[in-house]
Amino acid sequence: MKVTIIGAGPGDPDLITVKGLTLLQEADVVMYADSLVSEDLVKRAKPDAEVIKTAGMHLEEMVDLMVERVQHGKKVVRVHTGDPAVYGAIMEQIVLLKQAGIGVEIIPGVSSVFASAAAVGAELTIPDLTQTVILTRAEGRTPVPETEKLKDLAKHHCTIALFLSATLTKKVVKEFLDAGWSKETPVAVVYKATWPDQRILRTTLEHLDEEMHKNGMRKQAMILAGWALDEHIHEKDYRSKLYDKTFTHGFRRGVKS
């Protein structure tokens, strides 16, 4: 007996994995966060599937329903936005399901951070510029651990992707500046990545808050910050060793320049 948690991807129904779509189409019961997951995707469930919207349900309601359906021999899938491993709130569900003797299978999905990078044509790790990406969020009503304050993370001066932070941009800017970031640091904001109403904002750290206000980006926005987001980076010559003709690796012997 198990529940399958499926990463639906960032919005575009075609960005679900083949495995995830197959399991969705085989399910007897489909539970999905209707505030975030595309209804066009959920419509791909089989015609007689029981489809349940969960945006208005609390944790125990959802889990009790899953347990009841599984115990009646139903194939149950829980469809999450993006990839369930990042801010997916799945662990609390898994704990209660396991207490009820129900197993869990997780199918990964495309995270909004990578969909956003694709939307702006960015590589988040650039040779000789940054080789690290930090996925985090600004501290708001939900606290972050003391060792993970944004100011401290920003001191690494790498690419930073901010989830769930669109209403906290004043704090974000202050934390980055306090960590020594330049006001001119490039920032890209993607609202509803891959959805039909996707919008992209390119700005700098200095103007991030005012530009997001001006463009009405106060929710469902991914903030990508760092010099890897420089929209003119394609004009510069950052090269990896991977394709360097003088570099030897397991599949190719380098040639002398």
Rounded Rg: 21 Å
Q: For the record, what CATH class of the largest domain applies?
A: Alpha Beta
Number of helices: 8
Calculate the terminal CA-CA distance, rounded to whole Å: 61 Å
In CATH terms, what is the fold-level topology of the largest domain? Methyltransferase, Cobalt-precorrin-4 Transmethylase, Domain 2
Percent of residues in helices comes to 25-40%
How would you characterize this protein structure?
Keywords: Cobalamin biosynthesis, Methyltransferase, S-adenosyl-L-methionine, Transferase. GO terms for molecular function: precorrin-4 C11-methyltransferase activity. Belongs to the precorrin methyltransferase family. By secondary structure, this protein is α/β, with parallel strands linked by helices. The chain has two domains: 2-107, Cobalt-precorrin-4 Transmethylase, domain 1, CATH 3.40.1010.10; 112-235, Methyltransferase, Cobalt-precorrin-4 Transmethylase, Domain 2 (2-Layer Sandwich), CATH 3.30.950. The chain has helices at residues 18-26, 39-42, 59-71, 91-99, 112-119, 150-154, 169-178, 208-214, and strands spanning 2-7, 29-32, 50-53, 76-80, 103-107, 133-137, 159-163, 186-191, 199-204, 221-225. A five-stranded parallel β-sheet has the order 3-2-4-1-5, sandwiched between helices. Strands 6-7-10-8-9 form a five-stranded mixed β-sheet, sandwiched between helices. Helix 3 packs across helix 4. The radius of gyration is 21 Å and the shape is globular.
